[in-house]
Amino acid sequence: MRKKISDTANKISSLSFARWVGIDSMMAVMSKKDSLNLSYYSFFLKEKKVLNEKSYYEKYFLNQVKSKTDTINTNHIILPGFISYQSISGSKFFVFLSCFMLGIIGAFLEKFSYRYSYNNFILSALISYLFVFRMVHFGYLPFNTLIFFLSIIFTFLQFRIYNFILDKMKIIKIS
Fold first, then answer.
1. Radius of gyration over every alpha carbon of the chain, rounded to an integer in angstroms
2. Sequence-ordered alpha helix ranges (H) in the chain
3. pTM for the full model?
4. pLDDT score of 66 more than 70
5. Following CA atoms 47, 49, 156, 163 in sequence, which dihedral angle do they give, to the nearest 10 degrees?
6. Rounded to an integer, what is the distance from CA 16 to the centroid of its chain?
7. Band of the pLDDT at 97, cuts 50, 70, 90?
8. 108-126 pLDDT, tens per residue?
9. Contact between residue 60 and residue 32 where contact means Cβ atoms under 8 Å apart
10. I want to staple 61 with a disulfide (CB 3.0 to 4.6 A). Which of 28, 101, 133, 148 is the partner?
């Protein structure tokens, strides 16, 4: 029994230190701790897609500029995760509140997708996966996240509308 607990503790500590996704972006953001504030955060929210240019995160936190080896037809982007991105605000309360709200939104989205997919666990799991994947890659063009979620909700509503129309067509056809 002790060996099993010891093995579990070793695995957890190994994953915590070696596989902590996003710790590098959090360290990059926290390296500029004295310049973090809400106006800086709102500046980052307004980021627009510009081809052949580095993202705001790369420019301001990683100090990367376009190199001569970058090709014209490729656009490499390094992203911070959701928590790192929220940390740009400089407020621990804001980070906590936004993470709490993200959890609420995620739970609502999962429940919504389960209910509106006629209790389909697989589709609900897929939607949850897409949600988490987008949050992990949140740091580039964050406004697109809202569009992404609205498109998921619109897709489910379309299923319901199509089902309603088909049911009405059956009633009319039978009568």
1. 22
2. 2-18, 23-30, 38-45, 56-60, 82-87, 92-116, 121-136, 143-174
3. 0.72
4. no
5. 140
6. 21
7. very high
8. 988 988 888 888 899 889 8
9. yes
10. 28
